[in-house]
Amino acid sequence: PVSVYENDRIASKKVAYRIADIIKSKDRRGENTVLGLATGATPIGVYAELIRLHKEEGLSFKNVITFNLDEYYPMQSKAQQSYVRFMDENLFNHIDIRRDNIHIPDGTLKKEVIADYCLAYERQISAVGGLDLQILGIGRTGHIGFNEPGSAPNSGTRLVTLDDLTRRDASRDFGGKENVPTKAITMGIGTIFKAKEIILMAWSKKKAPIIRKAVEGEITGNVPATYLQLSDNVEFILDSDAASELT
Ligand code: F6R
Q: Which residues form the Glucosamine/galactosamine-6-phosphate isomerase domain (predicted)?
């Protein structure tokens, strides 16, 4: 299903409330909540609302386990552009999550060990019962996570090469495209699909053409987000600008 909201502030709150509901209902059952998280501009409002719910309404993340979708490769954790730093600054430093419950693909590994590391990442997700909810943004290439055009629907966590357009879109953060890493470690389409619930968010006119393809276009590996049409557990949450090219 597709839900369209007046603006991204209202839409982000809806997503935060959904996350809070899952955490609270799993807490009541004495179970952990396993969240798949994204970085980038899109989820910042969701994280801001979660922080508010924690500080003002007592929402606790003590029983929450998180797995981030991706990280640039190579990338030092302390670097300005690292997703470790992004998550700390935009969410983790402001809530009561246990540090050992946080998982983000490691951009500092030697190439030789990445394949094993990626398999272990998948096993860690399974070992805690799988993802209860995965939140996603979407790139202008149609990527989810960093699953660029050509990604297989059953792909797992792996090292990938970033699309040129994705590197161009990231160039501002890195002070030029030439400084954007050419690779990333990302959960696969298959990994994302195993989540019990998936929410893809998109805001602004800039995302309208790719949202049209993702929601209404032919299902194709050239636009990886179109694979989401095959799942019954996906919700597209859009602001009116991102939805403006839907028929
Ligand atoms: C980030 C990620 C990417 C972004 C996408 C949109 O962890 O997996 O797929 O969600 O590139 O980025 P923004 O939100 O900055 O437009």
A: 12-229
